[in-house]
Amino acid sequence: MMETILEIRQLKKTYPDGTEALKNINLSIKRGEFIVIIGPSGAGKSTFLRSINRLSEPTSGEIIFHGEDIVKANRAKLRKMRRNIGMIFQGFNLVKRLPTVRNVLHGKLGYMSTWKGALGLFNQEEVEEALSILERVGLEDQAFKRADELSGGQQQRVAIARAINQSPSIILADEPIASLDPNSSRVVMDYLQKACQEEGFTTIVNLHQVDFAKEYADRIVGIKNGEIYFDGPVKELSDDVIQSIYAKGKEAMPV
Amino acid sequence: MKQEALNISNQGEKGLSATKPSKYSEYKRRRKIMLKSQGFITAIILLLAIWSIWGTGFNLLSLFFGTYEILVFIFTDMFPPDLTVIGQLIGPALDTLYMSYVGMVISVVVSLVLGVLAADNLTPHWTIARVSRAVTAFLRSVPAVVWAIILVSGIGLGPLTGTIAIGLSGIGILGKAYAEVLESIDGAQLEGVRATGANWFQVIGQAVWPQFKAGFVSWSLYKLDMNIREAAILGLVGAGGLGYYLQGSINLFQYKEAATAILMIFALILMVEYMTAKIRERII
Question: What residue stretches are annotated with the ABC transporter domain (chain A) (predicted)?
Answer without folding.
Answer: 6-250
